[in-house]
Amino acid sequence: MCGIAGYIATAQSIDLRNAVVGRMVTAMRHRGPDDFGVASRDEATLGMSRLAIFDPKHGRQPMSTPDGRWHLVFNGAIYNFRTLRTELGATHAFRTDCDTEVLLAALAHWGRDALPRLRGMFAFALWDAHEHALLIARDSFGIKPLYIHTSANGDLLFASELNALLASGQVPTDIEPQAVSDYLSWLAVPAPRTIYRSVSSLRPGEYATWRNGRLHVGTYDSARALLSPTNADSVARTRTEFTAGLRAQLEDTVRAHVVADVPVGAFLSGGLDSTALVALMTRLSGARLKTFSIGFDAAGYSEAETASANARHLGSDHHASILTGERVASDLGAIIAALDQPTGDGINTYYASQAARSGGVTVALSGLGADELFGGYSSVRHTFVLSRWLPLWRVMPKALRDSLLARWDRGDTRSRKLADTLRYASSPSSIALLQRRVFGESARRSLLAPGVADAYAPHPEEAVLASDLSGADLFSVASLADVRGYMTDVLLRDSDVMSMRHSLELRVPFVDRPFVNWVSAQPTRFKHTPDQPKSALADALADVLPPGLLQRKKRGFTLPYAVWMRGPLKPFLDETFSPSSVGRSGLFDTHAVEAQWRRFLAGNDTLEWSRVWSLAILVAFLNRPRPVIV
Q1: Of 2, 38, 72, 328, which is the active-site residue?
Q2: What is the tens place of the pLDDT at every residue in 440-456?
Q3: Annotated catalytic, 98?
């Protein structure tokens, strides 16, 4: 795990490029405190900050092939690197026992065709000194980020973090108004846009090549590919066959994700997903595992007791931390400064990662991804219902539709979301994506200043998913829309930023290309039971889970914001929503934003807190001091 950066410029001196990349890498030392490297070759300067996971004494980056042609910086982990190493052994004499050298050899041997062979999370840059060309790529799910800036003359800068690109002193910091609008809609800025006008992001499953000042972006993986079984025999024909196959696949992904040359632990909540991983990790290793959970001081929110009970059943060395609103309030300045982009989520991962790193592990496994694959969200049920009703809605008299939409637009959060779905949905995938809307369209427009992103903009993945998932059953559409939308945009991005802030490598075994491919290709009747979501997962692990786990009410891993926002967080919110603060960026209607805050304080909409909190983080983020271009 690393932070990587690079500067490709034909007309800039090596000294300047080294200084620029050095600033970017220094800004990412939290991503990799174990090593630091910057190297130049021709017009390319590459840099890295390393968190050593495999072969800690070796594996320095940038890494080059013995013949000096290929030069690599790499962020992530390749879980099948030992298999690839065996396959490449006849043509490459390996000097280390790390995944970086295997990735370098694979790219030198197969070129871009190596990408589908990689099992892991990754973002990398490979410089070809013979062709004077750069290849960059991001893993199939976007677990690891990669941000790009191209100048008017074709120079290219890239980094693992937006804050690192800003630290280069070469990247304009103008805010992109459409990205602000995207955030209000989706709780994140979906790729390829970022919050900064001059910076883009590779999407999951994308690569890009740079040559002679020109950048070409292509795709090597897609949602459609996830639905295709690797072979006909891998599709289960009975529930018993499916359960046995799922157990084998779960053991395989956990076995792959625990491989490391440093201590490995796990996040453990009171729910099924993380408990399932810890149970398998314990069963497969036979060792006592370190686990970590976050509890809260607000009644009715904390899963600390349930997590501790799960840990006792599984025999883990458990570390529980109780988080207070006062602590969050005191840390908010540091948390907002650490953000690459605004987010209304992720603070829970910030503290869980802090606890795990201080508790003695360098790698931790998370249960992220199981809800998306096995229908754990209520959005799946809503997608089913709305997909059935949408054809009927379209043939209703226009006057009746307009009347109903106007009424729902004036209603609560759920009513406004229903109105937006019926107004803008064009396909099952768009219905699924619209279930993740944060602010409804009328509220979004009212919060922004006149002329700022006035038009409705669909999620950037909508058209791609509509094509990729054409003909797929509704569960697959809902599942993969969450995978390519909410999971990528919010959960994975926040997990990377918040875990790496504490120099922790966070791994997500449920978000594993072979595992997701196998699950996605299985019959829906086996993997999703509407009245008992994720029962397939529980059945596959019945012999290792605490008894009664599936019957416990799902809580989610959410901080008690609704309580804290009226208590310890209120001074921050009062200041953030003051007219001078809201008006500083020039992007908001100050009266509408302040009214949103006042309505929350006076009302009882149980969902409104998330919109108010995400809006506050956006305002505070935009008000951060920005670096000066040098």
Answers
A1: 2
A2: 899 999 999 999 999 99
A3: no
